[in-house]
Amino acid sequence: MAKIYSKETLVTPSMKPKKETVSFLLNYSKALSFLKVGNLKLEVIAN
Fold it and tell me: Is there a contact between 27 and 18 (Cβ–Cβ < 8 Å)?
């Protein structure tokens, strides 16, 4: 079992996200806002 953990990880450069994916996630997070109404928390996406 020690041999399993001593191997190198199999991370390759192809696992990096595309620029379009990062841009989409950043724009989505900018549009997302939370409203607190009484005991409720509402998520609102401003598109």
Answer: no
Question: How far, in Å, CA of 23 to CA of 33, rounded?
Answer: 18
- CA torsion 37-31-14-11 (nearest 10°) is -30
Q: CA nearest 43: which of 29, 22, 24, 27? A: 29
Closest residue by Cα to residue 32 from 47, 11, 14, 16: 47
Q: What is the pLDDT of residues 30-43, one digit of tens each?
A: 898 999 999 999 99
d(CA 22, CA 28) in angstroms, rounded, equals 10
